[in-house]
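Write out the 3D structure for:
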Amino acid sequence: MRAEGAVSRKNALRDRLLAGAALLACAPLPAMAQTAPAQTSPPAVIQDGLTPDAIYIEADQAGRQGDVISATGERDRVYARFQGHTLRGRAVTYDIAQGIGTADGDVELVDPDRNTVFASHLELDSDLRAGVAVDFATRTTNGASLMAATAVRRSENVNELNYALFTPCPICDAEGNPKTPSISIQAEKVVQDEELRAVLYRNAVFKVGGVPVLWTPFFAHPDPTVDRASGFLIPIFNYDDGRGVSVETPYLKVMSPSEDWLISPQFNTRVLPFLNLQWRRRFAEGTIVARGGYTYAQSFGDFDLNGDGRAESNVDFGDRTSRSYFLGYGKFDPAGPWRWGFTAERTSDKTLFDRYDVIDPYQDNGLYYGDQRRLISQLYAERQTARSYLSVAAFSIQSLRVARFNDVTPALNVFESDGALPLVAPLIDARWEPAGAVLGGRLRLRGSAVSLYRDDYFGSPVLRPEIIPVGSTLGLPGVDSRRVTGQLDWRRSFTSPAGVRYEPFVDGRVDVYSVADLPPILGLKDETITRQRATIGLDVSYPLIRRLSDGADLMVEPLGQISISTDPDLDPRIPVEDAQTLELDESSLFRIDRFPGYDLMEGGVRVTAGVRATVRWSEGRTASLFVGRSMRDAEQDNFRIPIPDAPNNLYDPTGLAAQTSDWVVQGSFQPSDRIRGWGHATVDGSGDIRRAEMAVDGRWGRRNLATASYIVDRSNPLNGPLNRNYEFVQLAGQQFIAGNWGVAVAGIADLERNLITRSEVGVVFDDDCFRIEVGYRRDNTRVSPTGPSGGVYFRLNLATFGGSGYGSNGLR
């Protein structure tokens, strides 16, 4: 009974002392004592005019007896400033001889880094290297709190706390009253070692919402002021029909402030483990990041073992072999006009990222991007000044895209051949502008050169219909090509007294092609082709503005262009490598070269017209709409390509082949700071939408949000297995229902196939300290090697305790 009574009194004393510390931390404070914003740079040196050994004091009463200075505050607390620190308290004394300062009553100490300490009693020496505090509470600049019944500062770097509690979560509500933190660690003793950059616990109890969930005799985590420290990060839980239950346990090993390793093994219940590694190193003038993964296992996923068209579930097939990936990049930007970098991206299996759910494998880290489901390895250098630009690059591509889907099982999908993709070496782009005006206008000179090499034959749309051989192409070599381009662009601007803006322009361009390994069956051979084009034209615009009622402004700007060019000479022997994808929109409609590359170009007489209208009203609210179209003197059948499912028929994916182009309709709106949207569409002459894309997102309350997007492509007029038309709707949102509890949903619907390809629905708890999301996920994508799959997912994000992503932040 005595022991139980002693324990009860001990716990009661601890709880009362911790409650007192929490009350002090939540008490109303002057502005400078509130939670400081997180700093991204070292704090500025405080210039208060005090010498290192001087003390400034403001108090209702102050006096001195011998070596002891004392001050008290009846109406306001005593205010003292010394060595960049600020101290407040009801009573403050300082012994000059011993160098000891004491403060009592609502004590608050703010250091130069704006970290705040609260206490009912505080003692410090003159060097701030030792001290004692009762009802101790500290709040760091990142919002974490550390409280203790008593605290002793053993040295400049070591704090010892008794009956302590640490939490990265808010401990005060909006009214300043104490509240139970969502996550906390309570311990009998805590040592905060700033030199070791760690917080060490003895007899630690983890609490969630104030409820104990785990006890451990020893525990440690990085100091809250540490950007990075070695240790385990948040584990990643997942479920997949192919892998079963997966747990990825990342461990971060910090080698130095500029180097670290991330070791992240993935353990699966149905297949062998998979090891992920990442190495990051910051140099004086750049960064290198290298990621990789490895396993030694069979492939797995749905597979038609019996040949009866029925897919089996989670079948291991093939021999065990090494399966791996490597994703690396480097960026170097030394002083001067030059910078350079590289990417190295390869994987052993086309579906490795899908099978093992590798985090964010498709990243844009170099000068050129590999696009979704394509990996790019490149080496590049750039030189840029105020008047010039030069880039030199070489790259190769590995494709993970499906060329032909298998209706029985995704394990039998046929993927795009890497040999049909070009090796580009080199690719050179250069621009230069003279400093002064030329004939009163701006002159720009451009140069470009490229060499492309293919191992395997590839037909449309790279080769034009005229030179695609009929019949089997087995064994034909890939077409190689080299191009050199020189271009001159001159433009000048005039504005009439009535406000009409005139911009005459002149453009001249010369291309030289060398093409090798053309299909010999047609009697072709290695060819050298030269072409040129000259263009003159005029842009006209007339911006008009009118003030509407209630302070709104209406701006209407008619736009027009006429350009006259020589024959573009689209020789069918020239492969189309860089101009296959055209996005006709407001920005490209008035360009001389509307194709993104050089292989296709326009000529003849063109007239382009459009109008842009914008309304702006209070508080930055806007709405805009653009409508435009282009007309030419003759059709351009060279822009048409064979329909994949009917090679003898041609269609126009660009919207520019006819004498009148597609209509371009583009708009955006933002009626408030919580709702915004935009849309873009190309509409053919009959009123049918060729392509369209739009999105709307909104926010309400503090954390509720939703977004919806729609995209469609109807450019291919014929249905068939090779038709790549698509139509998708994507929805995502979260709604908090009761306090910190809410629901989150996400989904992608394939309207072309009448199928929901991906969907998620989950329950969310989020209190700005940690976020837990548990839900159900379904995947019906045809690329997934394990076929349609579903399962429970679990996501956890904690403040202060670290994340588990593969970002590059934190290196110095």
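The chain is about 5% helix and 55% strand.
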